[in-house]
Amino acid sequence: MTNNRAFAELMAFQRQTEALAGVAGRLGWDQETMMPPGAAEQRGEEMAAMEGVMHARRTDPRIADWLAAADPADAAGQRAVALIARSYARTTKVPSDLAQELARVTSTAQGIWARARAEEKVADFLPTLGQVIALRRQEAECLAQGGDLYDALMDDYEPGATAEVMGAMFDRMRPRLVALRGAVLEKAPPAAIQGHFAKEAQLALSREVAGVYGYDFSRGRIDLAVHPFSSGGGNDSRITTRVVESDPFNCIYSTIHEVGHSSYELNIDQAYLMTPLGSGVSMGVHESQSRIYENQIGRGPGFTAHLYGLMAARFGDMGVGSADGFYRAINRVQPGFIRTEADEVHYNLHIMMRFDLERALVRGDLAVGDLEAAWNDRFAADFGVQVDRPAHGMLQDVHWSVGLFGYFPTYTLGNVYAGCLFQALNAAVPGVEAQLAAGDCSGAVGWLRENVQRHGGLRTPEATIAHACGFAPSEGPLLDYLEAKFGALYGL
Amino acid sequence: MTNNRAFAELMAFQRQTEALAGVAGRLGWDQETMMPPGAAEQRGEEMAAMEGVMHARRTDPRIADWLAAADPADAAGQRAVALIARSYARTTKVPSDLAQELARVTSTAQGIWARARAEEKVADFLPTLGQVIALRRQEAECLAQGGDLYDALMDDYEPGATAEVMGAMFDRMRPRLVALRGAVLEKAPPAAIQGHFAKEAQLALSREVAGVYGYDFSRGRIDLAVHPFSSGGGNDSRITTRVVESDPFNCIYSTIHEVGHSSYELNIDQAYLMTPLGSGVSMGVHESQSRIYENQIGRGPGFTAHLYGLMAARFGDMGVGSADGFYRAINRVQPGFIRTEADEVHYNLHIMMRFDLERALVRGDLAVGDLEAAWNDRFAADFGVQVDRPAHGMLQDVHWSVGLFGYFPTYTLGNVYAGCLFQALNAAVPGVEAQLAAGDCSGAVGWLRENVQRHGGLRTPEATIAHACGFAPSEGPLLDYLEAKFGALYGL
Predict the structure, then answer these.
(1) Touching check for A67 and chain B: CB below 8 Å?
(2) Edge to edge, what strands does the sheet with A222-224 contain?
(3) Contacts for B107 with CB less than 8 Å, ≥ 6 apart
(4) How many Å lie between the alpha carbon of B45 and the closest alpha carbon of chain A?
(5) A238/B37 Cβ within 8 A
(6) Could you read off the pLDDT tens digit of each residue along chain A, which spans 492 residues?
């Protein structure tokens, strides 16, 4: 077997695996958007059968042979081989029994969590949470082979990231965010928008806004779901959104966020389609795209001026009088219990808290029985408010119920990367705010497509950002941006 | 390995295969209803990958071992084993290369047929059609092992059916249908309905009508697609319909037809879920359900009286004055070129013609180059009209392009079975027309559910109908029904 032949066979095998992963992903989309409710149990069996097929492929021993013999000449080929090797090593290190048990427990845990949250009963969730943590620890032990357990888990979402590096960055960020938060909250908040925003009008507006951002409807679609998400890749990446009739920004900014994720997938070089390079390289880089679309671009003075025009045409002036009042309303800073509703100033403080708590849970330093108290104490210390009920506290996020330990820090990493990219974008595209104010996103999203998105998984996450920015990423640009933006808004 | 264990392992393996088949089916539904157009090529690879997975499972050599050792005690288990054995024998008799070539050619042939039809160019389709026929003949030779080629193909859609038996039945049916047709066409046709029937109103009405028929929306849904179809099974069987604004009966009766198919799937005993008994037993029995829902029930005097009320409330009286005029309008008999638009009197004459032509094609007695002339001559002889263009002639149906030779006769078989079932239903449920006139379908569909649908694949197709009717099925009841109905309508 020549090296070229091994590489070709490996890539052909991988291509089918990617195709099957696409099928499983489409099934997940259907489940959240279209599936009749009575089909849930049957769908569970269908998903499990697909999972069995995928697992068999991902642990196929021929992969080891192909990997040993493959020696592609070009960088893209070498990277593809490295990514397959990484995935193969992770999958084969975990015994099938453990992987199946994890899948079984987390699939029921989500329902148990949802009920516990609806009924505000922490105790109903704790036994399951304990089980999930124990299983994820076992998995991490298989993966870490003596190394840090949390790092082994995080590596699945953000290859190469470590808790030490992440924790040090958070330690540098916290004082500046706490100081900014304190200064802002001493000032009077700007007025919020007022009005009734009908569901169909919000949906039509969201589709229009997605179009302004260049979302390719010929390769995607937008539907309603309980939670906004993006799904799929290659030439089929779909978005969901939701509508709260009193709060149109929920729908609009959820949509823009998902357009960011989906555009990343859709804009990857077609040469990488159905290869390991054909999807977003990490959760952190993915989140950098959704966040920069949503925040740095979408909540900036330029784009909000355009959005004000679109909304005023549909809904009148909304009680804010001008584009400037509208910009201030959109960027109101308010303490709140819920991470997903947090403004740009508060958001990362939520993440840092979860990071510390979940590290302690995985290390075994914090028992699940003590989690609620630990959460509430920490929240009071960081946010200055007592948690009033579990759904506003440790039961608010789905992540831990489905075993996502090590995932939360990628949200802040995404914000940090978005800060770096926005600095580089402004240097590269002069007058980008004026373009955005005119409803022209092509300069901004074109730069991101060209410098980040089209490269897919070609480089490591950090190298992907460094390549785009021309400098090594750090938290500095994000903090500078936040202090400048909210300093100006609040007259600090 | 004890027999019980072999049976249990076989059924567990089969269950996963059924689950994966459900996934593939759902993907097909997505393709026709939701998929963004730019995803088509990628979807082709996804479908091919799923097909590869399914083929590997269906030819897994362990199945032969399990089949040899399995010896279940009960009838349902024995039937399940027989159905798996039948499928395994069919799949393993055809070389993989041939199966793949057939899949490849028929998948492109459909597009070639669609273009040829749109451009009315028979010659553009003939080379592909010749290829499809040659490949299907090769497949039939593998399956028939010396027997009749056409029978081997038909057996896939209607197990146990033979061209000889089917042809003899058609020969008995033809004179009575021709005589009925001739007598009816000598009379003046009743008035058609008039009006404009807005798309949304038609869709809302179709959903209401599906509800009247007991369609279970908690395990299904109705969407728009280019062609009406039903898809899926178990607890997830979905329907599509279409709207022609000038002809509301297109949407309503397409929907009712698909509700018949879908109800059959949804009403199968839950104990058979994801087993070989858990889906409709044959195309003929499937069509019997769609046809009796659509014709014997849906176009009868009882149901149309109820439908007249529903439509008059939405659209006014439609120029027909009364429920009786409405019933007459729905049952207008008119010659026409298109099978799918044919009335109950003409429909089976279309099928008989296709049956004879495709048998000659498969036998090699008719060359594809002579097909158009043969079609047009036969049409003139049977229908008394010259075909005016290929889209009204041999290019009208998709079936041959996708290799469906031996499928057409199951449509008439479905009508024949529907005739038998309607006779038995009337004997078993007195006053069923009065119930239908009151908008109560429960007597009719309840009887079908109990006597046909819930049994799924438990018995052979013919035994399924005989069990429900209490007599061996034949064409007599259908012909009696047609002569009585249209004799009364046209005063013969």
Answers:
(1) no
(2) A222-224, A236-241, A230-233
(3) B44
(4) 6
(5) no
(6) 466 899 999 999 999 999 999 999 999 999 999 999 999 999 989 999 999 999 999 999 999 999 999 999 899 999 999 999 999 999 999 998 999 899 889 888 999 999 999 999 999 999 999 999 999 999 999 999 999 999 999 999 999 999 999 999 999 999 999 999 999 999 999 999 999 999 999 999 999 999 999 999 999 999 999 899 999 999 999 999 999 999 999 999 999 999 999 999 999 999 999 999 999 999 999 999 999 999 999 999 999 999 999 999 999 989 999 999 999 999 999 989 999 999 999 999 999 999 999 999 999 999 999 999 999 999 999 999 999 999 999 999 999 999 999 999 999 999 999 999 999 999 999 999 999 999 999 999 999 999 999 999 999 999 999 999 999 999 999 999 999 999 999 999
3-state secondary structure of B5: helix
Q: CB of B400 within 8 A of CB of B458? A: no
Residues of chain B with Cβ-Cβ distance to A48 below 8 Å are: 19
Active-site entry in A18, A139, A258, A372:
A258
Burial A284-313 (b: 16+ CB within 10 A, else e): bbbbbbbbbbbbbbbbbbbbbbbbbeebee
Residues of chain B contacting residue A23, judged by C-beta atoms under 8 Å apart: 23, 27, 46, 49-50
Q: State the CB neighbour count (10 A cutoff) for residue A204.
A: 12
- In three-state secondary structure terms, B304 is helix
Query: First vs last Cα of chain B: how many Å apart?
Result: 68
* Closest-approach residue (CA) in chain B for A38: B219
pTM (2 d.p.): 0.94
Asked if B235 lies within 8 A of A38 by C-beta distance, the reply is: yes
Q: In this complex, do A23 and B27 lie within 8 Å of one another by their Cβ atoms?
A: yes
Q: Are B183 and B482 in contact (CB under 8 A)?
A: no
* Residues of chain B with C-beta less than 8 angstroms from the C-beta of A211: none
B43 in reach of chain A (CB within 8 A): yes
Q: What CATH number was assigned to the domain covering residues B159-492? A: 1.10.1370.30
Q: Are B169 and B477 in contact (CB under 8 A)?
A: no
Going by C-alpha positions, the residue among A250, A161, A180 that lies closest to residue A473 is A161
* Pairwise CA distance, residues B64 & B70, whole Å: 10
Domain ranges (residues) in chain A: 3-93, 111-492
Structure tokens at A134: 């124990």
Q: Which of B45, B48, B217 lies nearest to residue A36, judging by beta carbons?
A: B217
Minimal CA separation from A30 to chain B, in Å? 9
Q: Write out the two tokens for A280.
A: 């977003």
Shortest distance between the Cα of B38 and any Cα of chain A, in A, equals 5
How far is residue A89's CA from residue B264's CA, in Å, rounded to a whole number? 47
Q: Per the CB < 8 Å rule, is B236 touching A19?
A: no
CATH number of A111-492: 1.10.1370.30
Contacts of B147 (CB under 8 A, 6+ apart): none
Please answer yes or no on whether B45 and A274 come within 8 Å at the CB atom: yes
Task: Let me know if A258 is a catalytic residue.
Answer: yes
- Cβ of A20 within 8 Å of Cβ of B46? The answer is yes
